[in-house]
Amino acid sequence: MTHEIAVIPGDGIGQEVTPAAVAVLEALDLNFDFVEGEAGDALKEETGEALPQETRDLAAAADATLFGAAGETAADVVLPLRDVVGSFANVRPVRSYPALDAVQPDTDIVFIRENTEGVYSGIEAAVDDGVRTLTRVVTEDASREIVEFGFTYAKRNDFDDVTIAHKANVMQETDGLFLETAQEVGDSFDIDYDTALMDALAMHLVMTPEDYGVVVCPNLAGDMLSDLAAGLVGGLGLLPSANVGEENALFEPVHGSAPDIAGEDVANPSAMILSAAMLLDHLDYGDEAAAVREAVEGVLTDGPRTPDLGGDASTDAVTEAVLDRL
Ligand code: NAI
Ligand code: MG
Fold first, then answer.
1. Residue with the nearest Cα to atom 43 of ligand 1?
2. Segment holding 131, helix H or strand E
3. What does residue 233 show for φ and ψ, rounded to 5 degrees?
């Protein structure tokens, strides 16, 4: 069966790391058709539009999308693209690699972040001069969907515990509903789970990340707690992510276009290649995904490494080393 993969490199280092991920997917010799789409700052400068309809249609029609990064137009590109693929779950694995000198070398956490509502619903108002409001939307349906996704993910990926982050003691209506729904779902799975107030959870994540497996979060909490955990394991060059919907999904590194290093062939391609591994898992190529992860981990251990990890190798050299191991 042929899968169509939309590839949207975008701006800055997106142009450098996306071809690396495509080269890795091509090396696996699967039945993938790659179709390239344009988006981002450079395109906006040229045409006045950061995300043209053709690119939206490409992502909507594809079996999966690989996205690099956009620059200043990121919000106009990434948010609509996540929407186009109907993603409700943002999956962000944060793990440390033994060979790297991380703040917390024993971290293996997957944040499952609600991707459609909460304080990112976009309902804001200027009520008066000097007074602005924001409406936080929480629905039972979206809460159930994200928590079921989180528990199913935990089971499928051999995590033996799930943590539900919330602040229901203060946001009694909205997080009250989220927590109540989460507990109902949690009780229906035979897997241990805890609920945790998100502020205290932030401290525990820094001090004892080894105590956590899958962490299911409302939108803003997931955004912040996963970035916090990223700081524990060695930086943005390592972090992949998936935006998953019912039928479609988009895979992207957590990092942006990195204008400070763009064009220098020094960007770490690991985050993007690991995002491609998540794409493989999504399309049920589990063995191939594992092989890609093993190749990346081997290169992280033995080198070559890009400058963000203390090495002096180029993006191309690291990509070649991953391809050699594959
Ligand atoms: P950034 O992630 O682009 O860079 C932050 C720092 O990390 C920089 O010093 C950069 O050199 C380094 N870095 C990031 N990825 C790296 C990699 N693969 N290898 C080595 N070093 C890496 O975030 P920043 O600087 O806040 O934003 C730059 C631009 O990217 C902005 O225009 C922003 O809007 C956009 N952005 C886009 C995102 C997206 O498209 N999903 C996400 C975050 C930012
Ligand atoms: Mg963020």
1. 256
2. strand 131-134
3. -115, -5
